[in-house]
Fold this protein.
Amino acid sequence: MTVSKRRVLSGIQPSGTLHLGNYFGMMKPALEMQADPDNQCFYFIADYHALTQTPDPELLRKRGREVALDFLACGLDPERTVLFRQSDIAEIMQLTWVLSCLTPLGLLERCHSYKDKVSRGLIPNAGLFNYPILMAADILIYDSHLVPVGRDQKQHLEVTRDLAQKFNHQYGECLLVPEAIIRDETAVVPGLDGQKMSKSYDNYIEIFGDEKAVRKKIMRIKTDSTPVEEPKNPDRCNLFAIYKLFAAPAEIREMRAAYERGGLGYGQVKQAIFEKYREHFAAARQRRLSLAANPEQLEEILRAGAEKARAVAQKVLHRVLTAVGIK
Ligand code: AQP
């Protein structure tokens, strides 16, 4: 069960277009963690998870490639970090079954993400209900130490930890109990409507959207109707929350003071966000274009990543199956 480096593990579902919530909540911290030589990062495209909501095969394949391109364009270095498709690691399904046999139904019934989707009208399938078990398998199968995620995944991480502890209690020390890494400042990035930004709610700003269309979306971000001349509370404003993601500390202080002074129009803040957005992703946008022009290279990165991830998964699964009495 010993690994020489700290393993960092995270995934993104190809369930739609990646957005600022995915970027600031998970990708940016995950990319920063790859710079630490003590970390060995495993990042994956969670296509089995996305299957719960994506019945169109071509769309699922296409979105999977796009997630990989987005991640690479944003700075994932395949020389240092292992990037792979979840579905290339068949062992995950075996571990999912073993963990399912330990999971009380009540634990799944309490998961907010499932309840939230159902309350928004999604007709759930068993896959969506069982999502936290698959997620636990995704994490535990690589002896992961650290899992950078947005706050919406906190409860799922707790389920993962519970299942690992339950397994160890029942069968003896076998699974490593991981820790979530959630940054307060980017834990929940708000969408255009002020709710959590989500691929499946029509409230997101794409990382690599068409700039004109993104500008229009930014201009639609919901605000209150405080007149321009009046002072405003930045801490209750979606625009300020989004501006803060991009701006340097001194710029944030200046913007805060401008809110509190009065005389600042929301249109000005929206324009400032758009300019920051454009600048922040300009180099990545160029990199994405050249990566997209070379699909064989992308496939090779994913193939090589899967090979490395699978070697670890096979060892952990062997340990688990031996512990439960299957091997
Ligand atoms: N709004 C957000 N703020 C902060 N972090 C976020 N994440 C997602 N939205 C926000 C983080 O992004 C990572 C990848 O998420 P995911 O693709 O696995 O699924 P999700 O959390 O369910 O993201 P979406 O966009 O809301 O997808 P759909 O609509 O398909 O369910 C995770 O670490 C997540 O915390």
